[in-house]
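User: Modeling request: complex.
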Amino acid sequence: MKFETPAGTNPIDQRRVIGKPTPRIDGPLKVTGTAPYAFERNDVAPGHAYGVIVGSAVAKGRIARIDTADAARAPGVIAIVTHENAGKLGKAKAHTATMLAGPMVEHYDQAVAIVVAETFEQARDAAKRVRVDYARAKGRYDLAAAKAGAPIAPGDKMKTAVGDFARAFAAAPVTVDATYTTPDQSHTMMEPHATIAAWDGDTVTLWTSNQMIAWAVRDMSETLLIPKEKIRVVSPYVGGGFGGKLWVRSDAVMAALAARAAKRPVKVALARAQIMNNTTHRPATIQRIRLGADRTGKITAIAHQTWSGDLPGGGPETAANQTQLLYAGANRLTETRLAVLDLPEANAMRAPGEAPGMMALEVAMDELAEKLGMDPVRLRILNDTQVDPEKPERPFSDRHLVRCLEEGAQRFGWARRSATPGKMRDGRWLVGMGVAAAFRNNMNMKSGARVGVDRKGMVTVATDMTDIGTGSYTIIAQTAAEMMGVPLDKVIVLLGDSRFPESAGSGGQWGGNSSTAGVYAACVDLRRRIAQKLGFDADRATFADGKVSDGGRSVDLAKAAGDDGISGEDTIEFGRLNDDYAQATFGAHFVEAGVDAHTGEIRVRRMSGVYDAGRILNPVSARSQVIGGMSMGIGAALMEDAVVDPRFGYFVNHDLAEYHVPVHLDVPHQEVVFLDTLDDKTSPMKAKGVGELGMCGAAAAVANAVYNACGVRIRDYPLTLDKVLKGLARV
Amino acid sequence: MNDEPAFTLSRRGALVGGAAAAAAGAVPIDAGAAPTGPAQPAPPTVPVRFTVNGKARALDLDPRVTLLDALREHLNLTGSKKGCDHGQCGACTVMVEGKRINSCLTLAVMHDGDAITTIEGLGRPGDLHPMQAAFVKHDGFQCGYCTPGQIMSSIAVLQEIKDGVPSYVTADVAGSATLTGEELRERMSGNICRCAAYSNIIAAIADVAGAKDVA
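Assistant: Request completed. Predicted assembly structure:
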């Protein structure tokens, strides 16, 4: 099905199942510990052995020698794979660094070997006996040092300019010119990357933890140099991804190599302490923002320049994304520059681009509001735009940022905020309120599904879509139930298997809308087939209450399916609507923060938001997605910081004890409101993504609340005690 | 390639191989074939008997096996999760003799004779423990990986408050702990949820405790 014109009324609009608050259908499995994650598939891999990966102890250089003799003699060892015996491997185009180092080492903790043994304890012990001599090379690990001379990054819209920014900025009566920095961040999903690999002849099956099944097959094919048809990837339960499992990592590649060498299934999980340096991370940014406004607050000049680094051949953090679209202003400039660094591979983490970009832009807006003596909610409303400001002939498909700001301010009690910082006190706490817009692009991705009805009237959906905590199982079941006119408990959803039709996968907050649109398309095909079989008019036939009806006739769906059952399959493909219209999701974050007047400790006391993301398919899981994003925003604002050791080129605090993420006590109860909007340009579902929206701007709202509380403006994330105290001494 | 001979602090070998003496000449690495040279004998195993979810279990274990790995890899009770293996995340939380414990931080052989309860011992789909049902009702999870640990801790936390065990946020450590949102959050803070279902988890616990005003 091609989606090329705005959606008209369709069965989804009935909202019998879609849009209803629905507990997750995979909930009972997850709360009983019976949902099997990759490493737990003992059922499919009897007689498996354990693999432990040895990571490089240098960030850049060459492996001079690997001595595996001691390891090979260790109890229980079955096989050891290094670059010397792995056979010829390719590098997937999607990978910036190889999954197995050798002879060159590209980053710290890049896999240099895998040791396979009968037990985990034996493999772990033997892995420590592998000795590697490196010829170290000088690496580049400091973004600030590499910034000068960093070129414009390759790709679209890495440099955009409209009007005459320099002139308008020079002429503006009120200006902000500030530089913000965001640190390297880690996805830190709770389930470590893990894979069980088993070979059957020349065919390999990987039970793994991955967000994008078709990409996994492609990248394994390009790495192992075997046809895609010889690779099966299974990933029905994923213990979090946040972008860190968009591409197969060393666990999958090394498990496949290890299983081939050991001639047995091998299971491999990255140790927690390996993950941050072995896999990907969100790169640090340096962002310079200049805003010029007239005295009424209208922005006349807006510029956002951003720098990040990656390994040679890598990509940038596109932190200027939102600045191209969020606010009006005739004179504009964005630049995205990319330095070469020899840190581990930089790549997508939840809301790549907007997450760190909004951390800077939305603080700059706060600073502009203060200079104007204007309420920051009012400033944002005043500079709203209904068209792509770089391309005014391109309207937004559906945009209600102003409503989000107004309704959010009203609900939060924004009127009680003092415009002057440091004026609200609660015992030892200085209390402040902060606001930030939420903004994240909406992308749509081709997505397929197969839907069948059996003779009992059970509807089964199969698609290689993944559920990484996003609620895919449930919204897909809701979609099929709505389309086929059956209750939710008559739907079975099978996900995460490369034998199923290729879906959008989970990434870029496109999964929810795109994958359900694919299920919609497959259901339309199935409805047509059923109608034809019954001799009904396919366009007129209705599917409700387990029956198919047309005119005076009505047949049970089960009966229509017959003994052999009946199935349909289709793929939704997206046309130009995302080019002709700017599609995005919007919101407004409100935060009340307390700053301890003596210690500088920051606590988020209240946090809420109003969001506009088209049709909300399941308010239960959508809310959870948003509070998850908001909480990750708290982490980004207050604690998350992957610290680079500039001597050795690695992240020092590479575990959960030292890389701090929000815990229960860091996160207050959160209020989430969704506007009741529909976006008919996005898909037949009229939905958009919410998985990343909640994060975009949340950290800035915290930072703005901290400023309002205590008068300390910190432009270097995260906002830690030392930075607060240094500022408090000056205030 | 710019080698750095001036860098005196070498991480070569030492960090990866430990301080073991260098081996003799390189042994040909032949993946898949038996290792060359005399293999070292496997370390002795240790018998351990404990009760898991009311069922007596007897295992012969490598003494290095953690309680978590005994459950997951030897008893196929994979409900308890390995998020970090270092006591940093709480995903492996189980009850031992009625108290919650990070099962990755303790060796199985230390629990001879103990009674252990895992998530599998609470309820099953169709017959959920009230806390499991509350997690479903309040959407107290997303990816589900930390969830068994959160649920085990939730049950333990309510008992700890009932027993008057003070926490870091208890105003009067000599007095009795009260069931507040802050108490729940503090006591649950050893269980990380990166999906951050925190707000919903607290709602689920409060629901089970019958506490209406907890926010």
